[in-house]
Amino acid sequence: MENIFTDEYFMKKALQEAEMAFEKGEIPVGAVIVVNNIIIARSHNLTEMLNDVTAHAEMQSITAAANYLGGKYLKDCTLYVTLEPCQMCAGALYWSQISKIVFGARDEQRGFLSMGAKLHPKTTVVSGVMANEAADLMKRFFVSRRK
Amino acid sequence: MENIFTDEYFMKKALQEAEMAFEKGEIPVGAVIVVNNIIIARSHNLTEMLNDVTAHAEMQSITAAANYLGGKYLKDCTLYVTLEPCQMCAGALYWSQISKIVFGARDEQRGFLSMGAKLHPKTTVVSGVMANEAADLMKRFFVSRRK
């Protein structure tokens, strides 16, 4: 039987979260955290609504997943996020020792790969999953803001 | 008239916060955020109590200060923190565009200077303020945990 729980399956859920951010006038980034094919956290960027630079989608999902698990380490968890994490979120993911990160579009300017933050050695990374969809959403957002 | 509002004055307040973390069994790091010599946020590490890797002293103070100011940018603010910020906290401070960071002890292993995260070009940094006091508190904590 075909496994429906692919990286694309969960990235679509993260993209739905990103769409929700878009509708609120937030930079459209969404995230989910998955363990054993179950989504235990879902979130989207809320920095404008909360007036809080720390309210990135990833940060909220890390906190929510730890709450769900009753422990701060995200062992056997996978984060799906539509955009490459920034150095703040990469730093939080480092502390969480999360098993896997799957992100969509690159963020050449503010992503952790360019800025220099490091992930935990236990963490594996997959990039480029539904990257075009995530990047298109970002482009639509910034075009709509310029009008 | 002598200015009592020195970096040492506010670092002592951050050290008091660190002592409160120590008493709770948390890694003893404390922080305050100051604008025009008024403390608008004070916090200490709560990662164990909250089961949340994001609950560093700095992160809590950034959120609290933004709440107080009604805006997410910490212009004209100074963060006093007893230990060199990690890459997560440096990343959050980057987004906040905070004016000044004063930290006490170096964190050679997990501090942002070794790990590679970057601060905002608008941010100035002063290090080593009451560093011995902050480092002694950390040493006392880890000795007490080994017993």
Automatic annotation (TrEMBL), chains A, B:
Zn(2+) binds at H56, C86, C89. The active site is at E58. InterPro entries: CMP_dCMP_dom, Cytidine_deaminase-like, tRNA_aden_deaminase. Gene3D superfamilies: Cytidine Deaminase, domain 2. Coiled coil: none annotated. Binds 1 zinc ion per subunit. Its cofactor is Zn(2+). Keywords: Hydrolase, Metal-binding, tRNA processing, Zinc. It catalyses: adenosine(34) in tRNA + H2O + H(+) = inosine(34) in tRNA + NH4(+). Signal peptide: none annotated. Pfam families: dCMP_cyt_deam_1 (PF00383). Homodimer. This is tRNA-specific adenosine deaminase. It comes from Flavobacterium zubiriense. The lineage of its organism: Bacteria, Pseudomonadati, Bacteroidota, Flavobacteriia, Flavobacteriales.
